[in-house]
Design brief:
The complex is a heterodimer of chains A (195) and B (251). Chain A is an all-alpha fold. Chain A is built from nine helices and no strands. Helices cover 71% and strands 0% of the residues of chain A. Chain B is of the alpha/beta class and 251 residues long. In chain B, the strands form two sheets. Chain B has a six-stranded mixed sheet. A two-stranded antiparallel ribbon of chain B has the order 1-2. The chains are: A mainly alpha (195), B alpha/beta (251).
């Protein structure tokens, strides 16, 4: 088994230990798994859907699938990567099922997302950042799904190219290409909206 | 002058280029304003996205997820439990699932076979359906007449002097009465009257219309009335400490 990325919480349990305990029916183990990864999943879903309610639904569906299929996790990748993969698949299923959401995404109307201010910058810069950030969020919805996934995982979730490749089940070359083309399209859309 | 591809610029931004390629890109950027402009544009996009910050899910979401998980724990099916046990023992699905299926099929065959044998031994028809009418039984089977000399019970069809006829069951060549089982209770046909096994044919009983029985205080102690009606003819059975004869043919 390749080395997995292990994270110990205050109780000292690694991800693998939590998975093993969950396999044997330990409910507290699943609660810990949830608490470690909830924010990550929610933010991914939020950036993919642009809607907090949809994001909550996707998050719930993700963790129910994690609960059900955790037994299949073998530690070949990190638990975080595996859960991201489940979350991405839930977003994709949701997107295909929910026509209204699809329309909203494609029309770029992602007004419901609130942003957290970056307090390291001055108020004017923060306003500018916020405005641009909101604009970028709206434009993100106009990206084709493969580009949006790659850009969200890289620039919002901070995953490496290798991790993104594992999550999406594609080659690193493809990851590189999708990130680049996604960013380039956002750049072009942003420049045309600002001009 | 050829420009640097957007892939190269993007990878350069992420520090994902080898040293040789990185140097090549930097040399080109020194000379090409267009590529510098594009790189700045990409950089602004990345900065804007990275500046969005994180949002925490609500405690309500946690509540919902943990509640759904707990519900699922209670509803885990036998198949899921087997799958979980197989995973712990590292047995592949393609091994345990067909094996499990074969075990179930074999157990079903054994159960049905032993059930059929049991019914045959009891003199009951192996195929359970609505019991044939008394006249059908008479046509299909040999009829043996026995002189019992017993008076006919209240509500019965035969007269006091008419000997009872014992019909031969379809499933048994011996002189056993036609019998059937309804809701775990056994009834035998005696001269057009279905009598619950163990009930004395001459013991006095209350004669009831089935509709009256269905709305009576002891309706819950009765077997399925529709099935009793399909027997054809009156049915005498015990209800609590009372003997009741249901007159299905009065209507």
């Amino acid at each position: 088994m390749k080395a997995a990325v292990l994270m110990a919480d205050v109780t000292g349990d690694t991800d693998l230990e939590l998975v093993e305990r969950h396999r044997y029916g330990d409910r507290a183990a699943f609660e810990q798994i949830y608490r470690r990864h909830a924010e990550m999943v929610f933010n991914l879903a939020l950036r993919m859907t642009g809607d907090p309610e949809e994001a909550a639904d996707v998050s719930q569906e993700t963790f129910l699938r994690v609960h059900r299929h955790c037994g299949k996790f073998r530690g070949r990748s990190s638990l975080k990567t595996w859960i991201y993969r489940v979350a991405v698949n839930c977003c994709r299923s949701r997107f295909r099922r929910n026509q209204t959401w699809r329309t909203r995404i494609l029309s770029g109307s992602l007004e419901r997302v609130e942003q957290v201010a970056d307090t390291r910058r001055g108020p004017e810069d923060r306003t500018l950042d916020r405005d641009r950030g909101e604009a970028v969020m709206k434009l993100l919805g106009r990206l084709p799904e493969p580009f949006r996934e790659a850009v969200v995982l890289r620039d919002l979730e901070g995953l490496s190219y290798d991790e993104i490749a594992r999550v999406l089940g594609i080659r690193i070359g493809t990851v590189r290409s999708r990130i680049a083309r996604g960013r380039e399209r956002l750049r072009a859309l942003l420049e045309s909206s600002e001009s | 002058m050829s420009h640097t591809s957007v892939e190269m610029l993007s990878s350069y931004l992420d520090g994902e280029l080898s040293q040789a390629r990185r140097l090549r890109v930097e040399r080109h950027l020194e000379e090409c304003e267009d590529c510098r402009h594009r790189l700045e544009g990409l950089h602004r996009v990345v900065e804007s996205l990275e500046g969005l910050g994180r949002i925490s899910p609500t405690p309500y979401l946690e509540q919902q997820v943990l509640k759904s998980a707990a519900t699922r724990d209670r509803e885990v099916s036998l198949l899921d439990r087997l799958e979980g046990a197989a995973e712990r023992l590292h047995i592949e699905r393609w091994v345990w699932l067909p094996t499990f299926g074969m075990v179930i099929a074999l157990a079903s065959i054994v159960y049905l076979f032993s059930w059929g044998l049991q019914r045959q031994n009891q003199g009951l028809p192996v195929v359970l359906d609505a019991a044939p009418q008394a006249s059908e039984v008479a046509e299909k089977s040999e009829v043996k007449t026995l002189e019992t000399g017993l008076p006919v019970a209240e509500g019965g069809r035969a007269s006091a002097t008419q000997p009872r006829r014992e019909a031969v069951g379809l499933a048994d060549a011996a002189f056993e009465p036609q019998a059937t089982e309804i809701d775990g209770r056994f009834f035998e046909l005696h001269d057009g009257l279905w009598i619950e096994r163990g009930v004395d044919p001459i013991e006095p009983s209350i004669s009831l219309d089935p509709l009256e029985a269905a709305s009576s205080k002891f309706r819950d102690e009765l077997p399925n009335l529709a099935k009793l009606e399909r027997l054809g003819g009156p049915v005498r059975l015990r209800v609590g400490d009372q003997l009741v004869q249901l007159e299905f043919d009065r209507r």
